[in-house]
Specification:
single chain, about 300 residues, mainly beta, Tachylectin-2, Chain A, 9-stranded antiparallel β-sheet, 4-stranded antiparallel β-sheet, 21 strands, about 50% strand, Glycosyl hydrolase, Glyco_hydro_beta-prop_sf
Amino acid sequence: MIELYRDPVYDGATDPRVVIDADGLWWMFYTQRRASLEDSGPGVSWIHGSRIGVATSADGVEWTYDGTLEPAASGLVLESGPPPAEVDRTHWAPEVVWDGARWRMYLTEIDGIPDRWPGFVREIVEYVSDDLRHWSRRGALALSSDRVIDAAVARTPDGLWRLWYKDEAADSVTMVASSADLGEWSLDGVAVGGRPHEGPTVFELGGFWWMIVDEWRGMGVYRSDDGIGWVRQGGEDAVILADLPGGGHGNHGAHVRDGDELWFYFFGTAHDAPVHAATGEQRRAAVYRLGLDVDAGNLVVEDWKPGR
């Protein structure tokens, strides 16, 4: 499998979300993990302290790094080059959607740079933009707890917008909220339970609605007729992208529609990357993509080759 993109600053491009603007330019927003830092701090500090990296492409294959979304008085602004060496916030997992009039981003934000997983407030914060470069902050959403991450947003057939997200305070399952206007949200409970997971993405394809989640061993797939009730594809242990060429498995990704094609961008272990000298961890990550299609009522992954 071919690496499409490596972050040139920290070599830790994760959680990619790709959109295509009205001019046909492809934009990738991703978590810029500080994977290459040898002195990032104790524990999981290197996974925190991240900015949102931005890359653009004419075709969705060849990508150019454009910089990071940096805090500004009004919200966030795309600044070229690397982020500041010293940061005091963590930004994760951008979800970017077009609402029919403007762009909206639902971003996971954490104060500080935690060195361990539990005990730190995580919020999903909404931003709006007209150009994908300047983002005005609307504020944090009132959801099911203060340990929420990884938003996915789509408008379902009943006309309501829905926001799916991971709630770490609810055994790390996918919760859902609904809204008629993207202003007021109603909490609708658990969308997908079962084993812990994260990083949902939701889309329509082949007459069904689909949700893909990251189970840290491959991706779980769920199908729905209406975007509300979900049934797992295969048994409890069935996953896709569980064994990638070169090692590892697929992690936290999202879809983008280009005409009749639907692509799934995700991250995995970077090929031929050095391990972290102090810990021996393979921290570095690359972005990949594969096509998605529906065959006999099942979501299937199609191979991809350059030129296709």
